[in-house]
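Why do we bother with holo predictions? Because pocket geometry can differ from the apo form. Keep that in mind while you read this record for NAI.
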Amino acid sequence: MSKPYKRLLLTGAAGGLGRRLRGRLHGLADVVRLSDVAEMGPAGPGEEVVRCDLADRAQVLRMCEDVDAVLHFGGVSTETEFAPLMAANIQGVVNLYEAVHVLGVRRVVFASSNHTMGMYRTTDRVDAGMPTRPDGYYGVSKVFGEALSRMYWDRFGIETVCIRIGYCFPEATTHRQLATWLGLDDLVQLLERALLTPHVGHVITFGVSANPGLWWDDHLASFLRYQPQQSSHALAAAVAEGPAPGQPADPALVFQGGPFLHMGPKYPAHE
Ligand code: NAI
Ligand code: 15L
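The structure, written out:
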């Protein structure tokens, strides 16, 4: 039976999510091209492995050759100094969109982050139409990727589904992680919807499971028909008693960005 895509590119394939997604994408494409700056091991059946530094324009162009769609999970995935974010997440995403534009790739799925709106409070309900409120350089780098992909849709018709992923790890240990948790099966479903739904244009959706006490309202992306089947409810017993989100004490409990509020820019803006 023919598959929806001939060749799908997964960047960030050596990372936590990349390794968990590897093997879950074969129904979508004849060939899954795995890429990362780090070692990924040998290619298995239906796989290609391409080492690439996203900050290197020529390497990125080669990485994207003969690809039909991109799942862009590569890059720096946490708050840190600006320079590495600049290289991987800002220059890297510019290189990626230049390459897909030149090569005629029509659709990208961009792993954005909840940290694009980490300065909303845990008592706020946020939707994708509200202004971004990043909580640090990392969140700003993801806002940049969302804005760049919007420009490539408006000017050049390259479609992008931006997924503001919450917390996609097997276990949850904090109340915040229970609110923001995304199960792997739900992520796979969301990637399928992002790749198979016709005419997505440019859209921002929230990568979160059907958890109790959700912070995010995904009605603006309802046409994707993502219907989460998992819930952090099953993980709640593992979370120690402690202050629930919203109890004002620590900025990490007040703002959706959580522990990232203790990281990132440290100097007053004006000294
Ligand atoms: P990760 O840090 O485990 O994996 C990221 C991968 O990107 C790594 O293998 C790394 O080698 C690669 N990378 C970094 N700089 C690179 C460069 N210059 N060139 C090529 N590859 C480079 O992160 P994880 O958890 O797998 O997340 C994947 C994506 O999803 C990231 O973009 C992250 O920002 C996003 N995301 C993940 C969340 C989660 O809960 N895991 C939550 C929100 C967003
Ligand atoms: C992210 O964007 C990170 O990539 C991930 O490692 C987690 O820190 C997650 O956000 C979170 O907010 O918990």
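Residues 5-262 form a domain with the Rossmann fold fold (CATH 3.40.50.720).
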